[in-house]
Amino acid sequence: MYAIEAENLVKRYAEHLALNDVSVHVPAQKIYGLLGPNGAGKTTLIRIINRITAPDQGIVRWEGRPMKADDIQHIGYLPEERGLYKKMKVGEQATYLARLKGLSKSDAQKRLNYWFDKFDIGHWRDKKLEELSKGMQQKIQFIITILHEPKLLIFDEPFSGFDPVNAQLLKDEILQLKANGATILFSTHNMASVEEICDSISLIHTSKVVLQGNVEEIRQAHNQGIYRLRIRPTDSLKENPTYQILRSETRHDSMHLRIQKNVDMETGAFLRHLSEHMDIRAFEEELPTMNDIFIQTVQS
Amino acid sequence: MSKLGLIIAREYLTRVRKKSFLLLTFLTPFLLIALIAVPLLLSMVKDDTVKHIAVTDVSGHYFDRLKSNEQYQFRVAPEIFTSYESMKQQDPEAYAYLYIEGNLSNDSSQVRLYSEKQIEMGLKGFLESQLDELARNEKINSYQIPGLKEIIENSSADVRIRTIRWDESGAEKSSSSELAMIIGMISTMIIYIFIFAYGSMVMSGVIEEKTNRIVEIIVSSVKPFELMMGKIIGIAMVGLTQVMLWILLLGGLFLIGGPILQDQLQADQVQTLAGVGTGTMMNDVMPTEQNEMMEMVDVLLNLNLGYLAFWFVLYFLGGYLLYASLFAAVGSAIDNPEDAGQFTLPLTIPVLFALYAGMYSASNPDGPLAFWCSIIPITSPIVMMVRLPFGVPLAQLLLSFGLLVLSFIFTTKLASKIYRTGILMYGKKVSYKELWKWIRYKN
Question: Which residues in chain A are closer than 8 Å to B7, comparing Cβ atoms?
Answer without folding.
Answer: 100
